[in-house]
């Protein structure tokens, strides 16, 4: 149930060309390989592609109400559809299928746009109300499922992916300079912007209403961390037990499907908990999938194998090597927007690996944002004093060769030092910043950058969480930016590229509500992250996993870019390509590469971000009609 698209004529009269909608739908075929459907109704052409997970025989979309006046197309899953169905049947609604999508059309008849408040699940859907001439688009509170749109004075086009909108020849492909500035700063483009001026994302927790009266976007989900005077407290073990019960309920809901559901298992506590709870509830052996690397300090096969062995899962392993970079252009096309983190490669390969055996997997996205799993939170706890101490040590560190190890001491000291003299939000950002303002100005071509504040979304979210505890405010920022517009984009696009639905039980509304009410001390204790989640996991997992470090398919990018991938990076970021694209300055980019290879500084993150941007520019933006040309334009295949 994983691809929607449509065209709405805003005059309320003109019928869109169905061939244009079908071209958009064809661009989403990978999201729904099991079927397609459409409805043509006056000023609307609505299309859907289906990945069949529930009611395999009867769930084709779009789905209509009893008299065919209201239609719906859903990307996602409604986990409380059983309870909603029973309530709607009591009110007299008649159902033709057992599919969760059908609940939406009848719920809309009862509640109109307010229906979104009754949904538990991940969703991006379109409802067409023909009698009112009204189109409703809506996204879930976290933005797990995507929805993008392009509007002019004549029509509104919408789709699950940008590449479908690019099948329309009247959608301009001009870069958004402000979005480029933000991407080079934080490695993602927060909604509503995309990398194109003409295309916008419907933000998480928002709905869009369109018809003869125009187009209106409004926020419907207003979730935020609890203020200090409303926090939950009590016995820590009791709280851990309650968290475990809420996760049990969420995993049970996320396992509901008429096909087998697997787990992406990284060897960390988040995915380990999901695998353990899934094993307790599944009727057979749960398929688990993990990724490892030849470099021992990065390899996650051993801890993931320990979890799989204890739980008795049907375990599958994949080793990712530098030669797998031959698929980077395909990864860039699949992810749809630049995804500048090196985890994009192994995550995409893990999804492909899983797709050979299952149609849906559970994944641990959201655990870090809800329960404070990032080292940036412990760095924030060190505060201004920690930043000043790091700044004092930075000159000495700068004289040492840069390490290629994962989150090495020299990397952390440099990052902490960048926060000296800054406020809490800016210190938090400095630890994660991709390119500084000086570096952005150096690498960007003249006129390529915009003047907007690249932390605009971060500041808004930080202010919105005023009254909450310090770490909770930063978690709110990360959930609304890094999670919504980076991690979840990767999970959705990588999975859908291979016909796999990625389900994220941590982002269930009941689990999230519990997490938002926790005081900081139940999330961080000294330098230990995810305190309460680890306590909840203790009865389920080996002790070395419960107390172990964060894991998440992170490749040894620094070492690879100083070794086998150096020529690949120089090909992708070659002078001829960069001058043709006109986004980056070749000499400045080469200088970054030279500095990294010479071990003067670990610049693997900005280098990977620039590679992703360059590949996206040609794989998505320059591709004719949004299609992918896999002819290697940079010699990427030389990695194999």
- Classify the beta-strand content into a percent band: 5-15%
Largest sheet, spatial ordering of strands: 2-3-1-9-8-10
Count of DSSP strands: 17
CATH class of the domain at 228-371 and 469-546: Alpha Beta
CATH homologous superfamily (4th level) name of the domain at 228-371 and 469-546: HUPs
Main sheet record: 6 strands, antiparallel
Cα distance spanning the termini: 35 Å
Give the helix/strand class. alpha+beta
Overall outline:
globular
- Alpha plus pi helix count: 25
Question: Mean pLDDT across all residues, rounded?
Answer: 90
Rounded radius of gyration (Å): 24 Å
- Low confidence ranges: 632-640
Give the helix proportion (percent range): 40-55%
CATH architecture of the domain at 228-371 and 469-546: 3-Layer(aba) Sandwich
- The CATH topology of the domain at 228-371 and 469-546 turns out to be Rossmann fold
């Amino acid at each position: 149930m994983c691809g929607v698209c449509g065209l709405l004529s805003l005059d309320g009269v003109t019928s869109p060309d169905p061939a244009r909608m079908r071209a958009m739908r064809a661009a989403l075929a990978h999201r729904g390989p099991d079927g397609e459907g459409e409805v043509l109704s006056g000023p609307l052409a609505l299309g859907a592609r289906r990945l069949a997970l529930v009611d395999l025989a009867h769930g084709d979309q779009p789905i209509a109400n009893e008299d065919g006046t209201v239609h719906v197309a859903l990307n996602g899953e409604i986990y409380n559809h059983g309870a909603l169905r029973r309530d709607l049947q009591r009110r007299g609604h008649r159902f033709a299928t057992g599919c969760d999508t059908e609940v939406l059309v009848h719920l809309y008849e009862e509640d109109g746009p307010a229906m979104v408040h009754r949904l538990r699940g991940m969703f991006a859907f379109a409802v067409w109300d023909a009698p009112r001439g009204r189109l409703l688009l809506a996204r879930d509170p976290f933005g797990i499922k995507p929805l993008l749109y392009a509007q002019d004075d004549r029509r509104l086009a919408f789709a699950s992916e940008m590449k479908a909108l690019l099948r329309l020849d009247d959608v301009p492909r001009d870069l958004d300079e402000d979005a480029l500035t933000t991407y080079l700063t934080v490695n993602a483009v927060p909604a509503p912007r995309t990398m194109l001026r003409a295309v916008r994302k419907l933000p998480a927790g928002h709905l869009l209403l369109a018809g003869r009266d125009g187009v209106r976007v409004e926020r419907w989900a207003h979730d935020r961390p609890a203020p200090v005077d409303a926090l939950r407290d009590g016995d820590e073990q009791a709280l851990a037990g309650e968290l475990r019960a809420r996760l049990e309920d969420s995993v049970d809901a996320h396992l509901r499907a008429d096909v087998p559901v697997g787990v992406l298992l990284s060897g960390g506590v988040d995915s380990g908990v999901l695998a353990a709870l899934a094993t307790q509830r599944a009727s057979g052996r749960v398929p688990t999938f993990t990724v490892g690397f030849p470099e021992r300090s990065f390899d996650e096969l051993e801890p993931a194998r320990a979890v799989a062995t204890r739980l008795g899962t049907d375990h599958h392993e994949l080793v990712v090597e530098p030669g797998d970079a031959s698929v980077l252009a395909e990864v860039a096309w699949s992810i749809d927007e630049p995804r500048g983190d090196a985890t994009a490669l192994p995550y995409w390969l893990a999804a492909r690996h899983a797709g050979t055996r299952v149609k849906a997997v559970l994944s641990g996205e959201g655990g870090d944002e809800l329960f404070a799993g990032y080292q940036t939170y412990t760095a924030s706890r060190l505060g201004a004093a920690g930043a000043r101490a790091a700044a004092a040590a930075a000159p000495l560190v700068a004289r040492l060769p840069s390490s290629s190890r994962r989150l090495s001491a020299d990397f952390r000291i440099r990052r902490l030092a960048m926060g000296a003299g800054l406020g809490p939000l800016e210190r938090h950002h400095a630890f994660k910043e991709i390119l500084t303002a000086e570096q952005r100005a150096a690498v960007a071509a003249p006129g390529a950058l915009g003047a907007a504040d690249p932390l605009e979304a971060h500041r808004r979210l930080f202010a919105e969480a005023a009254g909450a505890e310090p770490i909770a405010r930063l978690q709110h920022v990360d959930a609304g930016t890094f999670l919504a517009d980076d991690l979840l984009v990767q999970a959705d696009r990588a999975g859908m590229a291979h016909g796999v639905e990625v389900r994220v039980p941590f982002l269930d509304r009941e689990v999230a509500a519990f997490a938002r009410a926790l005081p900081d001390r139940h999330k961080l204790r000294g330098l230990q992250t995810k305190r309460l989640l680890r306590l909840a996991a203790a009865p389920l997992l080996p002790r070395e996993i419960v107390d172990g470090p964060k894991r998440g398919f992170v490749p040894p990018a620094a070492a690879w870019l100083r070794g086998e991938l150096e020529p690949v990076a120089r090909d992708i970021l070659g002078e001829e390509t960069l001058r043709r694209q006109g986004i980056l300055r070749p000499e400045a980019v080469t200088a970054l590469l030279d500095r990294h290879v010479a071990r003067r500084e670990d610049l693997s993150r900005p280098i990977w971000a620039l590679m992703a941007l360059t590949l996206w520019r040609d794989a998505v933006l320059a591709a004719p009609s949004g299609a992918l040309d896999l002819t290697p334009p940079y010699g990427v295949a030389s990695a194999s």
